[in-house]
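[Meeting: bench + compute handoff]

Bench side (C.D.) handed over the final construct sequence. Compute side (W.E.) agreed to return the predicted structure before the next meeting so the bench team could plan truncations. Sequence as handed over:
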Amino acid sequence: VISVRIGQRCLASNEAFTELRGRFTRRLHIEDPFLLDRNLHCVLWQDQEYTLYQKIQEACGMLQRGSLPEGLWPFEEAGQRWSWTTDFSKPAAPAAASNAIRRPISSQGTVAKNAISDKKE
């Protein structure tokens, strides 16, 4: 169960969700933070829920490989996709983002080799 009210994901068997309808069906469960018996999965059809599940898995895999999922890209410029990374060849600066650089992402979602831009935001 995804719960905004609690601020975390929990098992459907958690006693905090005793009022949540349909919590033991094999589906994605999203608790309505105001109507505790309402399961927001009711607005998704099974194929839509499956697509959402696939996209969450895809985004998780990209993050584990060090890439950003498409919806989290800072910007897109002339067909070139960018992600933020840290340039470890320079000493760390006091400001957290001061040594952030942009690197183009290939169509496979990986950072292109030797593609470092001098541009900084």
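W.E. noted at the follow-up: Helices lie at 46-64. C.D. will use this when planning the next construct.
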